[in-house]
């Protein structure tokens, strides 16, 4: 994550970061503005995170449809997932990757 204490690499990634920041109007930004008491040091995060303690259970669940007089029951598979993620990792992103849903 960009910030005032992040050391950008001395390779093509430096240019990539500079172009992205410039595209957002942050080319000359130092991420520290003393008069506003603003300080964004930035940090490094892993590109990939692996869920820990992953377990799952596939079940059949019954769902009822329709009015009470003409009610029909449909069985459908349901999947329950349990897993742990490190801090700053988000379960919604993990689930999106598992389900391959477009955002």
Keywords:
alpha+beta, 4 strands, 30% strand, elongated, Pseudouridylate synthase 7 -like protein, TruD_catalytic, PsdUridine_synth_TruD, PsdUridine_synth_cat_dom_sf
Walkthrough of the structure:
InterPro entries: PsdUridine_synth_cat_dom_sf, PsdUridine_synth_TruD, TruD_catalytic. Pfam families: TruD. This is Pseudouridylate synthase 7 -like protein. There is one protein chain. This protein is α+β, with helices and mostly antiparallel strands and 103 residues long. It has helices spanning 12-23, 91-99, and strands at 32-33, 38-39, 52-65, 72-84. The strands form two sheets. Strands 1-2 form a two-stranded antiparallel sheet. A two-stranded antiparallel sheet has the order 3-4. A hairpin with a 6-residue loop joins β3 and β4. The two termini are 22 Å apart.
Task: Provide a compact summary of the structure.
Pfam families: TruD. The chain is built from 2 helices and 4 strands; from the N terminus they run H-E-E-E-E-H.
Biggest sheet strand order reads: 1-2
Write down the oligomeric state.
Answer: single chain
| Shape annotation | elongated
Gap between N and C termini: 22 Å
Radius of gyration: 23 Å
Count of DSSP-assigned helices:
2
**Class based on secondary structure composition and strand pairing:** alpha+beta
Organism: Ameca splendens
Protein name: Pseudouridylate synthase 7 -like protein
